[in-house]
């Protein structure tokens, strides 16, 4: 699945879930309801992070550590054989993806305290743009529509950055961190897609998230992020809510519905995280972006939609890869 954080990572490369899911019209209706719940879950991610009184790196660590803790009883019992059967290359790539995911969190989460939730979420969801660039660097040609969408999204990014610069240099720095988080997520997505050719979602995400938690723990200790623990009950409650909403409900349900709805519908729907997060932040946190920010957000979303549409058209005419 598109594991992560994103808040904001594309689910187009998520491996399809196993059996046991309803088929036909009834199954599709169930999937659509679950997709709506998943979007609500990931839309709560950025506002919950912004509202949590804890260091950004500590939030990132606890989100992943709690997820690993919840997954452990199930993965270690049901997927023990698969974990043991992972080859050295698969384990190495999974661990590498975990490190890159830690970089993603380490850049994106601090940006939420420096710029608006709307701007940060819009910029971190530019991941498909950077994925396309990386694929091109690897020699894969991309349709013209992909580059048109990329240009449109970059224009939206420029407008957003200009608006934040007019507010403060700190907001511009936050925009840069969020953009870097989106770039890091592209590397995570490509590494995960490679691993999932031969490894199931549960085994991959378990190794990946465990590595991410370990890397973030080291980062917290080295940087002296404090307080690392000893939070009041309200803060622990928000960390638990973040884990349940964004990680277990959001990403897990996206993993569940991608089999029935397909990667195109799922990936396009995840773009609703940006306006969803902005709406939650406006109502809950009182973060109302300037009026001029809304056209910029629409440019970013329109550009991303074009990229995903072109990519999915290409995928529809290609031979499906194992496990993708």
TrEMBL record:
**Keyword Transcription regulation assigned:** no
| Family annotation (InterPro entries) | EamA_dom, EmrE-like
Supply the name of the protein.
EamA domain-containing protein
Q: Where along the chain is composition biased (Polar residues)?
A: 1-10
The portions of this protein that span the membrane are: 32-54, 60-78, 90-111, 117-137, 144-165, 171-191, 203-224, 291-310
Q: Where do the EamA domain residues begin and end?
A: 32-161, 173-308
Q: Which organism is it from?
A: Streptantibioticus cattleyicolor (strain ATCC 35852 / DSM 46488 / JCM 4925 / NBRC 14057 / NRRL 8057) (Streptomyces cattleya)
Family, similarity comment: Belongs to the EamA transporter family.
Taxonomically, the superkingdom here is: Bacteria
Signal sequence annotation: none
| Disordered, as annotated region | 1-24
Tell me which PANTHER family the record gives.
ACYL-MALONYL CONDENSING ENZYME-RELATED, EAMA DOMAIN-CONTAINING PROTEIN
Keyword entries, A-Z: Membrane, Transmembrane, Transmembrane helix
Tell me if Nuclease is a UniProt keyword of this record.
Answer: no
Q: Which GO terms describe its cellular component?
A: membrane
């Amino acid at each position: 699945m598109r594991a992560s954080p994103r808040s904001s990572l594309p689910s187009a490369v998520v491996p399809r879930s196993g059996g046991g899911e309803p088929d036909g019209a009834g199954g599709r209706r169930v999937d659509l309801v679950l997709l709506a719940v998943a979007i609500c879950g990931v839309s709560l991610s950025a506002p919950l992070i912004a509202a949590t009184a804890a260091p950004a790196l500590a939030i990132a660590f606890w989100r992943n550590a709690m997820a690993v803790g919840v997954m452990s009883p199930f993965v270690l019992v049901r997927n023990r054989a698969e974990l043991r059967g992972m080859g050295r290359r698969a384990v190495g790539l999974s661990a590498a993806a975990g490190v890159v995911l830690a970089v993603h969190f380490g850049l994106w989460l601090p940006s939420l305290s420096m710029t608006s939730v709307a701007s940060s979420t819009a910029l971190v969801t530019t991941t498909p743009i950077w994925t396309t660039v990386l694929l091109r660097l690897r020699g894969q040609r991309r349709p013209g529509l992909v580059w048109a969408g990329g240009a449109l999204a970059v224009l939206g990014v420029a407008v957003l950055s200009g608006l934040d610069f007019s507010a403060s240099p700190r907001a511009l720095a936050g925009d840069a961190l969020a953009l870097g988080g989106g770039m890091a997520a592209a590397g995570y997505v490509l590494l995960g897609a490679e691993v999932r050719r031969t490894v199931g979602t549960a085994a991959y995400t378990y190794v990946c998230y465990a590595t991410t938690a370990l890397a973030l723990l080291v980062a917290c200790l080295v940087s002296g992020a404090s307080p690392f623990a000893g939070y009041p009950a309200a803060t622990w409650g928000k960390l638990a809510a973040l884990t349940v909403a964004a990680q277990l409900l959001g990403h897990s349900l996206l993993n569940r519905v991608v089999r029935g709805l397909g990667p195109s519908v799922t990936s396009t729907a995840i773009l609703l995280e940006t306006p969803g997060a902005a709406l939650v932040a406006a109502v809950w946190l009182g973060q109302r972006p300037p009026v001029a920010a809304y056209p910029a957000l629409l440019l970013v979303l329109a550009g991303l939609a074009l990229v995903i549409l072109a990519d999915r058209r290409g995928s529809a005419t290609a031979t499906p890869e194992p496990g993708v």
